[in-house]
Amino acid sequence: AISEAPVIWFDGALVPWRDARIHVLTHGLHYGTGVLEGTRVFDTADGPAVFRLEDHLRRLERSARMLRLPLPQSTGELAAATVELVRANGHRECYVRHFAFLGYGAMGLDMRSSPTTTVIASWEWPAYLGGEPLRLKTSSWRRNDPNSVPPAAKATGPYLNSALARREATDAGYDEALMLAADGTVSECSTENVFTVHGGVLRTPPAAAGALEGITQDTVLALARDLGVEVRVESLLRSDLYAADEVFVCGTAAGVVPVGSVDDRELPSAPGDVTKRLADAYRAAVSGEDLRHRGWLTLV
Ligand code: PMP
């Protein structure tokens, strides 16, 4: 069950959690016409801090532009609202969900007749894939094709693709789905980007493979460069994961999580040495201990 917080930011006002309601004939509920972000707040020595807030809000704005969804608020307004909300809810650490969708006003697919509703919610939500190294299974569902719906937009409707893949994997007894692009190259997991380490080189698939340009992915690439690890953003085959020295996944909700096996091929080590170093570097960055990356933090 979700851990309820006192208030939700709803179209500009802080309203009690249970009063943040919408009509059943909301456009976005029927047609998936919405965009979203998932951001985390971490406890630091200077108090709670939002990690890479501006980057998340810029991605929200880009997603809205790709959908032609009018976003009434600027990223500056949404950043201020985020800080206001996290303060009002009194969190030390939390997850923040920004989303905007076509609201109530008209039915039918035409996107021009419905107003946008914008919401920011925050709640306490520990990393949800924690614990044991993950067992991945290649999904029978291909990642959304860029010419069907753009995977670069973090939009609500397209998450049906991820939800089908996640459900298939967990029904079969695995932890998470590995999704391939239409051309058969590796894309990403249902809600995380994927990395391999092979011969000391770190690799992750490009956006052209239908992978979201993850902010944690970008963080991991920057931290790897700090550590002097060679990084390559390039196409991967599923067999590259079978043959890798290490595999891990990462995302805002999950953090940096080692993979133990891919399609029942056990990885030689989980977590491997590079994964461990990157997970430690990630913890140091989000907690503000790594002074080089203080610019990623917005104090609440
Ligand atoms: N891919 C997908 C499909 C996702 O939903 C997410 C979570 N936002 C990610 C990757 C990871 O992105 P980020 O690191 O920005 O959370």
**Integer count of domains:** 2
Nearest-integer average pLDDT: 97
Gross CATH architecture of the largest domain: Alpha-Beta Barrel
Q: Approximately how much helix is present in the residues?
A: 25-40%
Distance between the termini: 26 Å
User: Spans with pLDDT under 50 lasting ≥5 residues?
Assistant: none
What is the CATH class of the largest domain? Answer: Alpha Beta
Q: What structural class should be given to the helix and strand makeup?
A: alpha+beta
β-strand amount: 25-35%
Give the cofactors and ligands.
Answer: 4'-deoxy-4'-aminopyridoxal-5'-phosphate
Q: CATH topology of the largest domain, anyone?
A: D-amino Acid Aminotransferase, Chain A, domain 2
Counted beta strands: 16
Name the CATH superfamily classification of the largest domain. D-amino Acid Aminotransferase, subunit A, domain 2
Describe this structure in a few short sentences.
The chain has 2 domains: about 120 residues, D-amino Acid Aminotransferase, Chain A, domain 1 (2-Layer Sandwich); about 150 residues, D-amino Acid Aminotransferase, Chain A, domain 2 (Alpha-Beta Barrel), CATH 3.20.10.
Kindly describe this structure.
Keywords: Amino-acid biosynthesis, Aminotransferase, Branched-chain amino acid biosynthesis, Pyridoxal phosphate, Transferase. The chain is α+β, with helices and mostly antiparallel strands and 300 residues long. It is built from 7 helices and 16 strands. It has helices at residues 27-31, 53-67, 75-89, 159-171, 215-226, 238-242, 273-286; strands at 7-10, 13-16, 34-44, 47-51, 94-102, 116-123, 134-138, 176-180, 186-189, 193-198, 201-204, 230-233, 246-251, 255-262, 265-266, 297-299. The chain starts with 6 loop residues before the first strand and ends with a strand. 4'-deoxy-4'-aminopyridoxal-5'-phosphate (PMP) binds at residues 38, 162, 188, 191-193, 212, 214-217, 251-252.
